[in-house]
Amino acid sequence: MKQFIVKPKTKVKLSEWDPNDTGDFKGGKKEGLAQVEKLNGRLETLQELLFAEHRHKVLIVLQAMDTGGKDGTIRRVFDGVNPAGVRVVSFKAPTAEELDHDFLWRVHKGVPGRGEMVIFNRSHYEDVLVVRVHNLVPPEVWSKRYDQINEFERMLAENGTTILKFFLHIDLDEQKERLQARLDDPTKRWKFRLGDLSERQRWSEYMQAYEDMLNKTSTEYAPWYIVPASRKWFRDLVISSVLVDTLEGLEMKYPEPEENLDRVVIE
Ligand code: ADP
């Protein structure tokens, strides 16, 4: 899955990244889903190990355009993982109190502690995306945030946080289909907001903001992955694989049990 990583300081052009790509994966949907299921079982074990070892902290950042699949990713990739060790933090438009602070204030409160896995459903990156596209702060403010984010993430990494960032990449046509599906399905209509349509009209401005984000904030210690997300099964396969590979790379161990447990007799 290395092909989907954004190498630090490279220039990404999202129009050159195919949202339908399935990379080197030779199988189809059936094989893909079977692999996701296998990886999911592995993830369950690794998460328990993370919790038991109580050393590493894992932060997963999900960013996408509307209908990009953040919710579906959380549902499927983390299916069956013990909810006690995983936390989802969703970032909405900031409250008045949050706006009175620096943009990372509310973010820092949400980061994982030892043994914990946290998923950011949207994140501090909104502060260089929606905030930029809607001119919520002047350019001299948002333009400084890329460096500020890099420094913040460096600090987290140096303090034991493994950071993985996923941009779920779909195109305008796919979004149209997914919005239409929401309109047509009475059980999905609640998700449809008229505001999504005006955001959709700003698609190219958003892509520009996403490209800058990917170019400026993919680092060795907190890499971005551009996940082809039109095929949901492949999206889940990429994210599960990266997650499992990364967690395996941490070489975690169960804590040493107390001594002389072999002699214990429970009466
Ligand atoms: P989601 O689309 O993630 O399922 P919502 O429909 O509640 O959830 O959308 C959350 C909204 O909050 C989005 O429109 C997003 O742009 C907005 N938001 C998040 N962070 C910020 C921010 N820092 N400044 C302004 N708006 C933000």
Structural summary, described in words:
This protein is an alpha/beta fold. The protein has one domain (27-249): Rossmann fold (3-Layer(aba) Sandwich). Helices cover 43% and strands 12% of the residues. The chain is built from eleven helices and five strands, in the order αβαβααβαααβαααβα. It has helices at residues 29-53, 70-77, 96-99, 105-108, 130-133, 139-142, 145-158, 172-184, 194-200, 203-217, 232-249, and strands at residues 57-64, 86-90, 117-121, 161-169, 224-228. It has a five-stranded parallel β-sheet, sandwiched between helices. The longest helix has 25 residues, at 29-53. It is globular and about 70 Å long. The relative contact order is 0.22. The model has no long low-confidence stretch (mean pLDDT 97). The structure holds adenosine-5'-diphosphate. Adenosine-5'-diphosphate is lined by residues 66, 91-94, 121-122, 126-127, 130-131.
Radius of gyration: 20 Å
> How many structural units, i.e. domains?
1
Mean pLDDT: 97
- Cα separation of the termini: 52 Å
Order of strands across the main sheet: 2-3-1-4-5
Shape: globular
What's the helix and strand layout?
Elements: H1 29-53, E1 57-64, H2 70-77, E2 86-90, H3 96-99, H4 105-108, E3 117-121, H5 130-133, H6 139-142, H7 145-158, E4 161-169, H8 172-184, H9 194-200, H10 203-217, E5 224-228, H11 232-249
Parallel strand pairs: 1-3, 1-4, 2-3, 4-5
Helix pairs in contact: 1-11, 2-11
Care to give the gist of this entry?
This protein has 267 residues and is of the alpha/beta class. The chain has eleven helices and five strands. The model has no long low-confidence stretch (mean pLDDT 97).
